[in-house]
């Protein structure tokens, strides 16, 4: 399932995603280890979430969260302008990037200008979306993912499988093998505590060497120009406080108006994401270190990415911008639970990934054609969404948008068929012809092969040659 | 920053929340706080304390109490090189001592504000974290805490860390494991 491979010179080569969505899905369904790991992960999420609904009224908190995010999206230009002004007042630099390439150019340019050799990253889907690691790697700069799950994936040359828990598809033995390879020694424990302790020391070395820390942004608070970085491990705090420069990469839709709104969303997020009423660390950062402070970055850069988001305002997909990237729709989705995130072949997987990937990548990408169909439209995602995005409706709209010339042709055929069947005379003539055809093709009472468009149907099932069938 | 009445109920709620978040806590009289904290740290095997330069630390005579227990004390800013500050050199059992500006009873969350005397990495670079919390700084909800921290007319701190229990990762098999990058233990000394 690897989508990257290691080059002979030790650098990382990024391959385009392998195979078609169908092939990747079939591969994933055959992978029993993956299925077991996904089952464990989804069950533990479901249990935590039940607790949040019972003890903390998560369902009641949803309506307010929805109102906050809808109003944020309506007022987005004004909120971004306020955010930008306040970050600058606090001594930070703000860059608005129209797309991922522009954002990557800025960050690699900054690294080169400051002579930075090592970049330490905390988990960020936005940087995955803009392929920042690839850009830094091409510029000859070492990138280290410091979130434990992301680091494991980096060692395995894989993309994240999940927004929140990127390595949920690997088990303990698989992780231990990767750590042994990275450390170049067999002296790596294989119990969970030992593995975590091992990673802690290896990654502290990277923090000591890093000249730039790159983090994502869960929320930007416009009224004070503060970014919120939510995490459980403590690596994001190290990323945002130890290197000399901190670069925060934020999707443009991740801004709220004030601290009243931020307080609500910051509570909903861990409840929906991990079934806990608080994340272990929330880092609230307003500009670089100030005079008289002994730690914290000397420079703070906030890179705000459009990447196709701005164009969604005012469209039938606008509600997708409310997403707070909690991952609840992934765990709730029977498709995602069966195949995992990697089969989607895009940074964002699950129902929200199936909706936004085609929108962000544009109508000509393969994702636009296939991903909206990675759903049973059961509606579990919409029910799980803590900010009330009607994901099942957006999936239907995404399917309509994905309709290719081929599917439009089938639309014409369906309209013609419907016209024939609406008149009793033509209906009867059709059925008579159909019965004759079935009888002619039948062998031992069954039709096992139909011509033309019927071939796909008989590939997996047979049809009785007479109706009603004879026993 | 002042807090509302009903302080006793809020304090009980905080202690329950801290336990849920796998932090330990003790409530002590202010006069006893220095000695009690130093004893807890000595029992935990702490070799070195990195201590926030805060009035509360002075008031309870923590530095003398720590030295009497044979613990090496470094006041913030420590002036350590980056490798030693990150625990790659020097003693392993370092304890960061912080003084939260506020605590959130409902969630068991400490609100740490960065300043000249209070580094933003004190708790997270160390293996242990001890927080000295005056009881009148406990509020009920996160909304109240953030409203006080970012009140109109107050310059927002350059960094605020909301800390809710020891560092944790569920990245291996979705099972929660403590001490990923930050502190492995968190102990809150509530001073009444």
Describe it for me?
The complex is a heterodimer of chains A (471) and B (192). With 471 residues, chain A is of the alpha/beta class. Among the domains of chain A are: 58-311, 3-Layer(aba) Sandwich (Rossmann fold), CATH 3.40.50.10420; 420-464, no CATH class. Chain A has 21 helices and 14 strands. Chain A has helices at residues 21-30, 32-56, 58-74, 76-89, 100-113, 125-129, 132-138, 148-156, 172-183, 192-209, 235-241, 259-274, 328-332, 334-339, 350-361, 366-370, 380-384, 391-401, 405-422, 424-441, 455-458; strands at 4-6, 12-14, 93-97, 118-121, 142-145, 212-216, 219-221, 226-231, 245-251, 255-256, 281-285, 299-305, 446-447, 463-464. Chain A has a 6-stranded parallel β-sheet with strand order 3-12-9-6-4-5, sandwiched between helices. In chain A, strand 7 and strand 8 form a beta hairpin. Chain A is globular, with a radius of gyration of 26 Å. The two termini of chain A are 47 Å apart. The model of chain A is unreliable at 1-16 (pLDDT under 50). By secondary structure, chain B is α/β, with parallel strands linked by helices. Chain B has a single domain (7-191), classed as NagB/RpiA/CoA transferase-like (Rossmann fold, 3-Layer(aba) Sandwich), CATH 3.40.50. Helix content of chain B is 29%, strand content 27%. Chain B has a 6-stranded parallel β-sheet with strand order 1-12-7-4-2-3, sandwiched between helices. In chain B, strand 10 (168-169) and strand 11 form a beta hairpin. In chain B, helix 2 runs parallel beside helix 4. Chain B is globular. The relative contact order of chain B is 0.22. The chains are: A alpha/beta (471), B alpha/beta (192). The interface between A and B is large, with 73 and 55 residues. Strand 11 (281-285) of chain A pairs antiparallel with strand 9 (159-163) of chain B.
């Amino acid at each position: 399932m690897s989508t990257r491979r290691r080059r002979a010179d030790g650098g990382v080569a990024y391959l385009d995603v392998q195979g078609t969505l169908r092939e990747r899905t079939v591969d994933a369904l055959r992978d029993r280890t993956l299925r077991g790991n996904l089952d464990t992960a989804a069950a533990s999420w479901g249990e935590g979430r039940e607790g949040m609904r019972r003890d903390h009224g998560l369902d009641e908190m949803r309506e307010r969260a929805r109102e906050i995010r809808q109003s944020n999206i309506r007022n987005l230009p004004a909120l971004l302008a306020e955010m930008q002004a306040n970050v600058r007042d606090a001594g930070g630099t703000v860059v608005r990037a129209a797309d991922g390439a522009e954002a990557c150019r800025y960050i690699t340019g900054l690294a080169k200008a400051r002579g930075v050799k090592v970049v330490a990253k905390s988990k960020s889907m936005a940087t995955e979306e803009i392929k920042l690691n690839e850009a830094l790697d091409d510029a000859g700069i070492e990138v280290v993912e410091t979130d434990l799950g992301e680091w494991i994936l980096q060692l395995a040359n894989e993309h994240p499988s999940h927004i929140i828990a990127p390595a949920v598809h690997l088990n303990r033995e698989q992780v231990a093998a990767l750590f042994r390879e990275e450390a170049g020694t067999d002296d790596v424990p294989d119990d969970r505590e030992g593995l975590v302790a091992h990673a802690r020391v290896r990654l502290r070395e990277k923090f000591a060497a890093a000249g730039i820390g790159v983090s994502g942004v869960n929320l930007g608070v416009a009224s004070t120009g503060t970014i919120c970085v939510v995490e459980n491990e403590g690596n994001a705090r190290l990323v945002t406080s130890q290197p000399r420069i901190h670069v925060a990469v934020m999707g443009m839709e991740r801004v709220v108006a004030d601290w009243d709104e931020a307080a609500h969303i910051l509570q909903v997020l861990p409840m929906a994401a991990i079934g806990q009423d608080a994340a272990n660390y929330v880092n609230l950062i307003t500009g670089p270190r100030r005079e008289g402070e002994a730690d914290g970055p000397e420079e703070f850069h906030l890179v705000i990415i459009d990447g196709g988001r701005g164009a969604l305002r005012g469209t039938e997909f606008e509600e997708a911008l409310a997403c707070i990237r909690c991952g609840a729709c992934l765990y709730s989705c029977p498709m995602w639970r069966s195949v995992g995130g990697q089969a989607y072949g895009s940074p964002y997987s699950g129902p929200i990934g199936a909706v936004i990937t085609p929108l962000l990548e544009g109508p000509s990408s393969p994702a636009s054609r296939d991903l909206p169909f990675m759903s049973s439209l059961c509606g579990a995602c919409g029910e799980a969404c803590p900010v009330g995005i009607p994901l099942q409706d957006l999936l239907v709209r995404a399917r309509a948008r994905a309709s290719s010339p081929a599917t439009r042709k089938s639309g014409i055929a369906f309209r013609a068929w419907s016209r024939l069947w609406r008149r009793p005379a033509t209906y009867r003539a059709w059925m008579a012809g159909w019965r004759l055809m079935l009888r002619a093709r039948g062998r031992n009472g069954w039709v096992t092969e139909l011509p033309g468009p019927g071939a796909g149907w008989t590939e997996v099932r047979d049809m009785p040659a007479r109706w009603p069938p004879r026993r | 920053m002042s807090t509302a009445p009903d302080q006793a109920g809020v304090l009980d709620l905080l202690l329950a929340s801290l336990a849920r978040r796998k932090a330990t806590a003790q409530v002590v009289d202010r006069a006893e706080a220095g000695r009690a904290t130093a004893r807890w740290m000595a029992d935990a095997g702490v070799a070195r304390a990195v201590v926030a330069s805060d009035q509360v630390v002075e008031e309870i005579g923590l530095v003398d109490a720590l030295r009497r227990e044979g613990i090496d004390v470094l006041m913030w800013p420590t002036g350590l090189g980056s490798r030693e500050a990150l625990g790659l050199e020097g003693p392993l059992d370092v304890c960061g001592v912080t003084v939260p500006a506020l605590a959130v009873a409902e969630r068991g969350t400490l609100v740490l504000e960065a300043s000249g005397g209070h580094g933003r990495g004190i708790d997270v670079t160390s293996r242990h974290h001890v927080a000295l919390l005056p009881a009148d700084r406990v509020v009920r909800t996160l909304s109240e805490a953030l409203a006080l921290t970012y009140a109109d007319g107050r310059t927002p701190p350059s960094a605020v860390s909301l800390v809710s229990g020891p560092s944790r990762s569920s990245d291996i098999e979705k099972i929660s494991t403590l001490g990923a990058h930050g502190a492995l233990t968190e102990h809150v000394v509530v001073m009444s």
